[in-house]
Write a structure and sequence with these properties.
The complex is a heterodimer of chains A (252) and B (234). By secondary structure, chain A is of the alpha+beta class. Chain A has a single domain, classed as 2-Layer Sandwich (Ribosomal Protein S5, domain 2), CATH 3.30.230.70. Chain A is built from 5 helices and 12 strands. In chain A, strands 1, 2, 3, 4, 5 and 6 form a 6-stranded mixed sheet that branches. In chain A, helix 2 packs across helix 3. The longest helix of chain A is centred in the C-terminal third of the chain and has 24 residues. Chain A starts with 6 loop residues before the first helix and ends with a helix. Chain B is α+β, with helices and mostly antiparallel strands and 234 residues long. Chain B has a single domain, classed as Ribosomal Protein S5, domain 2 (2-Layer Sandwich). Chain B contains 4 helices and 9 strands; from the N terminus they run E-E-E-E-H-E-H-E-E-H-E-E-H. The longest helix of chain B has 35 residues. The chains are: A alpha+beta (252), B alpha+beta (234). At the A-B interface, strand 3 and strand 6 of A face strand 3 and strand 5 of B.
Chain lengths: 252, 234
């Protein structure tokens, strides 16, 4: 943790104002570049304001897990990287959290039909690896990672056998789940915190929604009231639709 | 006989190059360097205090370098994290940077240099070192010169510049020689070789490497100038 004077930020937050003049429920500009890595089966580079991440998908054969012998598997990893910022202690904490929460959002929404990813029940199935790398951290790596992972999945192509034509993953686009992260500073709630806002915040909540709420994660030492949680969920549903339009209309 | 290159380049021709700096706002300096389908990004943080403390040097800065390949940068999936190859490359990059950066100007401090390969198609350590050197310059560190690194070598019985993966795997035998210069000083600061090459050919390999390095040097300088002219406008 760094020593920053958060007083000013907290003072304006009480009036519902932010350092970059955004409204409380307003996201930073999102820039999505798809198909950026030639060796990846699917890939994307995402900028959320100054937060920058890169995601790559690899589809490889593996042995199914004993509890799900007739399904493929999803493995999401997030690498905080030394590129992204210079607070090693923070990195350890958010590194694990971002990976796990992104994983849950995608897994629980069942956007990939894993039943169709089995080759031979109990013996062989496809593993979908999504690896996400942070390039620059200006807060809210989670939402940026979520979009990058989904964009990389959308374009991913794999071969069922060495001879067969490359095909897309069995995705159900209705089930894509989009993450919205809010922080609470004082008594007010703000969408898509920058790093300074994350540092000054009391609590944080990330909500991934498709047609249902698929994952939630509350962070920070502060609290949310039930009304605030409900408010955030409502907003997450509105925002999820916007993100979906943005993603599907982004140039390939 | 290897008479025509797989990608039709001349024997002393580089692949297309892209270079830019300032891509990572949090870092003190950063750069992206792409040559053909090989791409590396580098960030520099520092000088800062040395952590862990026992690595501190009283008369100079310590350069801490990490080289890593992104898991999707290669045809298979590279397990995330640093393996033995990554550690060795980190070491040779550190050595080269120690000659280029005037570390004696910053006693008892540390300069963190972090390089990630996003795409690998041969020549990753050279692309990484070139990116790292541009990032150091972008961070405003005093330097004896920029580093320009390129792989040269022999494919079959031809001396070639900037090998691709396809050429590295050529059945008729290949020798790969990553080489890095401080071009204006005529100093070689990184040199590795694996294969078999005669003394005469080795001389030619270094010559053609120098030709390539000088071209890369100009591209690096252009990228850095572009960055600072952009800044003066805003």
């Amino acid at each position: 943790m760094n020593l920053e004077n958060n007083e000013y930020l907290r003072e304006i937050a009480d009036k519902g104002e932010r350092l970059d003049q955004r409204k409380p429920v307003q996201r930073r500009a999102i820039n999505i570049k798809r198909k950026v890595i030639n060796h990846a089966d699917g890939s994307a580079y995402v900028e959320l304001g100054q937060t920058k991440v890169m995601a790559g998908v690899k589809v490889l054969e593996g042995v199914p897990y004993p509890d799900k012998p007739d399904e493929g598997s999803l493995i999401v990893s997030f690498e905080p990287t030394e590129l992204a910022d210079d607070y090693p202690k923070d990195r350890l904490i958010y590194g694990v959290e971002v990976g796990r929460v992104t994983d849950r959002g995608i897994r629980e929404s069942r956007v990939i039909d894993m039943k169709k990813m089995v080759i031979e029940a109990g013996k062989k199935s496809f593993f979908v690896y999504i690896d996400i790398y942070a390039l620059n951290n200006d807060g809210n790596l989670l939402d940026a990672s979520n979009i990058a992972a989904l964009a990389a999945l959308l374009d991913a192509k794999f071969k069922r056998t060495p001879e067969s034509e490359p095909e897309s993953l069995p995705l159900d686009l209705q089930k894509m789940s989009f993450s919205s992260t809010f922080v609470k500073i004082g008594k007010n709630v703000f969408l898509d915190p920058m790093r300074l806002e994350e540092n000054a915040s009391d609590a944080k909540i990330s909500i991934a929604v498709s047609t249902a709420v698929n994952s939630m994660q509350k962070g920070g030492v502060g609290f949310f009231t039930p009304e605030e949680v409900d408010f955030c969920i409502g907003k997450a549903f509105d925002l999820g639709g916007e993100l979906k339009d943005l993603l599907t209309s982004s140039p390939k | 006989m290897y008479e025509e290159r797989f990608d039709k380049r001349k024997f002393d021709e580089l692949r297309p190059i892209e270079a830019e700096t300032g891509i990572i706002p949090n870092a003190d300096g950063s750069a992206r360097f792409r040559i053909g389908n090989t791409e590396a990004i580098a960030a520099v943080y520092g000088p800062t205090e040395v952590k862990p403390k026992h690595l501190e040097k009283l008369d100079r800065a310590v350069i801490m370098c990490k080289y890593d390949m992104m898991s999707f940068s290669v045809p298979d999936r590279a397990k995330p994290g640093v393996d033995r190859r990554d550690m060795e490359i980190g070491e040779v990059i550190t050595n080269a940077l120690n000659r280029a950066v005037m570390v004696e100007e910053f006693p008892k401090s540390m300069i963190g240099v972090y390089v990630y390969v996003t795409q690998a198609d041969a020549g990753t350590r050279c692309a990484s070192l070139t990116a790292a050197s541009m990032a150091c310059a972008d961070a405003g560190l005093p330097m004896r010169d920029l580093i320009a690194a390129v792989a040269a070598g022999t494919v079959g019985d031809s001396v070639v510049l900037d090998l691709t993966k396809e050429e590295e795997d050529y059945e008729g035998g290949t020798t790969d020689v990553p080489i890095a210069f401080l071009p204006s000083k005529n100093e070689i600061v990184l040199l590795q070789l694996d294969g078999a090459v005669s003394r005469e050919d080795m001389k030619k390999v270094i010559e053609v490497g120098k030709v390539g390095a000088l071209k890369i040097y100009e591209i690096e300088k252009e990228a850095l100038k572009r960055r600072f002219s952009n800044e003066s406008k805003s």
